[in-house]
C-alpha cells in the first residue's frame, strides 16, 4: 500500500495509465467488448489501467489500482478534502482525543448502509481493526496503522473508541477500508482470501464491485444509497491494457474518454486534437533510484544477490554524483516533472525538504570518480573500475518493461556510469516484484504516491517493516534499516504538534538522503487527457489544479458527469493525431510504483 504502507502511498506509488470510455449507441463500450452484449444505452465510464489487480481483499491489496478500487467500494473513517486534503468526515462524522492523547473517540454516521441493505455501524469498524490486530495476515496491507493500538471497542452502534499504547499522529488519516463484519467474519485464511469469487461485493462506498476477471476488467455500479449521493454514470469499468498505445488510440477514436500517464510525445500530440483536454498538474509521486542495502529479515538473516559494493555509502554516493537529474527532467520527462531533491514531493509544501548547498549531491562526474578511487575501485588498463579482488564493478538495475521512462533513464545511466568505468545491465521485466522481494537486484527504479499524511512512505524504510524471515514478505520498500531513521520515525509518529512533526519529518528526509540508499530523481507531473465531448465535468484534486487519477479519495469518478448525447463520438477527425506516437503510456502504478506495491506480512498507502 504501498501508504503501509503499512497501510497506505502505498507505492504506493502517479497512478498508472488510465482511460475512460463512455458507452453509447454508436460506439460499443468496453463492457460490450468484454461480454459481447450491447449496453442498451447505459453510460459506462471505463478506466483503462495497465497495472494488474493484486487482490480485491482490502487486507491484502497493495497496488494502486487495487487500493483505488477499495476507495470506491468502502468508506474509511475519514476522507481528504478535495481542495486542500485536510481530514473531512467519512464513515465517522466527528472525532476527539482524550487529554492524554491516548484515547480517540469517533462518532459513526447513521446514514451509511452496506450495499446489501444492512446498517454500517461502529461494530464493523471495531471488528476490522481488531482483526488486523489479532491476525497478522489481515495486517498485510495496513498493519502499520494498528500496530500501536491497545484496544478497540464499539460501546454502541454510533461510537468507536480506540485506545493507544502511545500517541499516534495518524488518527485522522487512517487509510483503512472498513469492511462489513457480517460478511468478513466468515472468512478463514486471510492470507489466501482475495475476495474475487462472489459478486456483488458488499461495500458502503460510492460504487459496488459487480464483476472481475484477472488482467481483463473490474466492473462497478453506482451505490444508489451512498450517503453523499450516487455517482452519475450507470457503470464504471476498470479495463486492463498492457499496451498503453492502445489506450491512446482508443481515446482518439472516442472509445476511451480519459487517459493518464501520458508520455511527453502523446501529450503534445493530443493538445491539437479536437474535443480533448490535456491536464498537466503537479504530481503526488516521486521517481527514484533505489539501491539494495543488503536484503535482510528481522531474524538477522541476509539473502538475495545484491552487489556487496553497494554496502559502501561512498559507492552509492558516487553513482548518484554521476547521475544528471536535470537531464532526466529535460530529456526524458521533457519538462513534465520537477528535479528531485527530498523524499516528499513539493506538492506537499509543508513537508517538502531540500538539502542545503553543502549537503546536496550534485551532478559531478569528477567527484564521483574521486569517491570510487577513495573506496578502492581503481580503473584498470581498459578503463573499467575493479575492486581489490580484481572483479569489475558491474551492476544490474530492475526496470519495468512497460515503462518507457525506466528504459530511457536506463540508457542514460549506462552512458554516464560507463564513462565512470562502471558497467550497468538494465533488466527490463514484466514482473519486477519477484526479484525485488527475493533481494535479487543491485539497483531498481522505484516510486511511490505520497499521501497528505506522509507516515506510510516513511514507515516502509523502518527496521520494523522488514520481513520476519527470508521466506516472508514484509512491508519494507527496499530493506532499509537505519537506527537513527527509526528513532526519528518513532518521534514523528507520536508528535501531535504539527510544526514539530514537520521538523521531524524533514529531519528524516535529511537522514535518508545522507545514507544514499535512495536518490530521488524527479517528481513527475500528472499528465492526463480526457474527451470533453464525453465528460462534461470532473473534479481534480486539489480542486484548483490537481490530478484526476490516483487521488486521495474518490472525488474524480464519483463526481464525473456525462456530456449530453449518447456518449459516442466521431473517431475519423482525430485519428491522425495518434500517428507517430510510439512511446507507451506510463504504467498505472507509474514510474516504478508498483514495484513496491506488493503483499507484505506487516502492513500505507499503496497509492
UniProtKB/TrEMBL annotation:
Which PROSITE patterns does the UniProt record give?
Answer: TAT
Any single biological process term in GO: peptide transport
Q: Does the keyword Nucleus apply?
A: no
Keywords of the record: Membrane, Signal, Transmembrane, Transmembrane helix, Transport
Q: Which GO terms describe its cellular component?
A: ATP-binding cassette (ABC) transporter complex; cell envelope; periplasmic space
Pfam families registered for this protein in UniProt: SBP_bac_5
Question: Do the record's keywords include Transit peptide?
Answer: no
| Protein localization | Cell envelope
Q: Which domain of life is it from?
A: Bacteria
Locate the transmembrane regions by residue number: 575-596
Residue span of the signal peptide, if any?
A: 1-32
A Gene Ontology molecular function term for this protein is: peptide transmembrane transporter activity
Segments forming domain Solute-binding protein family: 87-459
Q: Which family does it belong to?
A: Belongs to the bacterial solute-binding protein 5 family.
> What name goes with this protein?
ABC transporter substrate-binding protein
Amino acid at each position: 500500500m504501498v501508504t503501509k504502507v503499512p497501510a497506505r502511498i502505498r507505492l504506493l506509488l502517479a497512478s498508472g495509465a488510465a482511460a475512460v470510455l463512455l458507452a453509447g449507441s454508436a460506439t460499443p463500450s468496453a463492457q460490450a467488448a468484454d461480454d459481447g452484449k450491447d449496453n442498451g444505452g447505459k453510460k459506462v465510464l471505463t478506466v483503462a489501467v495497465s497495472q494488474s489487480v493484486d487482490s480485491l481483499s482490502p487486507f491484502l491489496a497493495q497496488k494502486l489500482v487495487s487500493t483505488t478500487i477499495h476507495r470506491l467500494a468502502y468508506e474509511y473513517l475519514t476522507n481528504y478534502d478535495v481542495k486542500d486534503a485536510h481530514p473531512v468526515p467519512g464513515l465517522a462524522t466527528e472525532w476527539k482525543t482524550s487529554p492524554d492523547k491516548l484515547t480517540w473517540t469517533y462518532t459513526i454516521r447513521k446514514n451509511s448502509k452496506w450495499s446489501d441493505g444492512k446498517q454500517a455501524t461502529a461494530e464493523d469498524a471495531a471488528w476490522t481493526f481488531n482483526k488486523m490486530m489479532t491476525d497478522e495476515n489481515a495486517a498485510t496491507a495496513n498493519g502499520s496503522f494498528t500496530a500501536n493500538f491497545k484496544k478497540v471497542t464499539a460501546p454502541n452502534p454510533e461510537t468507536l473508541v480506540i485506545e493507544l499504547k502511545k500517541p499516534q499522529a495518524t488518527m485522522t488519516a487512517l487509510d483503512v477500508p472498513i469492511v462489513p463484519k457480517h460478511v468478513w467474519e466468515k472468512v478463514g485464511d486471510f492470507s489466501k482470501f482475495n475476495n474475487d469469487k462472489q459478486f456483488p461485493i458488499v461495500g458502503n462506498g460510492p460504487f459496488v464491485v459487480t464483476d472481475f476477471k484477472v488482467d481483463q476488467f473490474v466492473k462497478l455500479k453506482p451505490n444508489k444509497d451512498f450517503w453523499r449521493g450516487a455517482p452519475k454514470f450507470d457503470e464504471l469499468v476498470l479495463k486492463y491494457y498492457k499496451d498503453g498505445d492502445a489506450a491512446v488510440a482508443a481515446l482518439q477514436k472516442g472509445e476511451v474518454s480519459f487517459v493518464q500517464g501520458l508520455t511527453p510525445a502523446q501529450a503534445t500530440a493530443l493538445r491539437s486534437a479536437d474535443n480533448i483536454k490535456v491536464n498537466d498538474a503537479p504530481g503526488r509521486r516521486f521517481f527514484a533510484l533505489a539501491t539494495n542495502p543488503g536484503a535482510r529479515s528481522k531474524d538477522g538473516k541476509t539473502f538475495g544477490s545484491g552487489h556487496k559494493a553497494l554496502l559502501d555509502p561512498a559507492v552509492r554516493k558516487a553513482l548518484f554524483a554521476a547521475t544528471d537529474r536535470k537531464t532526466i527532467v529535460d530529456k526524458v520527462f521533457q519538462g513534465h516533472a520537477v528535479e528531485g531533491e527530498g523524499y516528499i514531493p513539493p506538492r506537499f509544501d509543508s513537508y517538502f525538504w531540500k538539502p542545503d548547498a553543502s549537503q546536496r549531491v550534485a551532478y559531478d562526474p569528477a567527484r564521483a570518480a574521486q569517491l570510487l578511487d577513495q573506496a578502492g575501485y581503481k580503473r584498470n588498463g581498459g578503463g573499467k573500475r575493479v575492486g581489490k579482488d580484481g572483479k569489475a564493478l558491474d551492476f544490474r538495475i530492475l526496470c519495468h518493461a512497460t515503462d518507457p521512462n525506466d528504459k530511457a533513464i536506463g540508457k542514460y545511466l549506462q552512458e554516464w556510469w560507463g564513462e565512470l568505468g562502471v558497467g550497468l545491465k538494465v533488466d527490463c521485466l514484466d514482473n519486477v516484484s519477484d526479484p525485488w522481494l527475493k533481494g535479487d537486484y543491485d539497483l531498481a527504479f522505484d516510486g511511490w504516491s505520497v499521501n497528505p499524511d506522509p507516515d506510510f512512505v516513511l514507515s516502509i524504510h523502518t527496521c520494523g517493516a522488514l520481513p520476519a524471515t527470508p521466506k516472508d514478505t514484509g512491508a519494507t520498500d527496499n530493506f532499509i534499516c537505519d537506527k537513527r531513521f527509526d528513532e526519528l520515525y518513532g518521534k514523528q509518529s507520536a508528535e501531535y504538534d504539527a510544526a514539530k512533526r514537520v521538523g521531524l519529518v524533514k529531519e528524516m528526509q535529511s537522514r535518508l538522503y545522507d545514507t544514499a540508499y535512495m536518490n530521488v530523481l524527479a517528481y513527475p507531473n500528472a499528465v492526463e487527457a480526457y474527451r470533453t465531448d464525453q465528460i462534461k465535468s470532473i473534479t481534480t484534486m486539489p480542486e484548483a489544479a490537481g490530478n484526476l487519477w490516483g487521488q486521495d479519495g474518490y472525488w474524480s469518478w464519483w463526481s464525473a458527469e456525462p456530456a449530453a448525447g449518447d456518449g459516442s463520438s466521431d473517431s475519423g477527425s482525430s485519428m491522425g493525431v495518434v500517428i507517430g506516437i510510439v512511446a507507451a503510456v506510463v504504467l498505472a502504478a507509474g514510474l516504478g510504483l508498483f514495484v513496491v506495491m506488493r503483499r507484505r506480512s506487516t502492513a500505507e498507502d499503496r497509492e
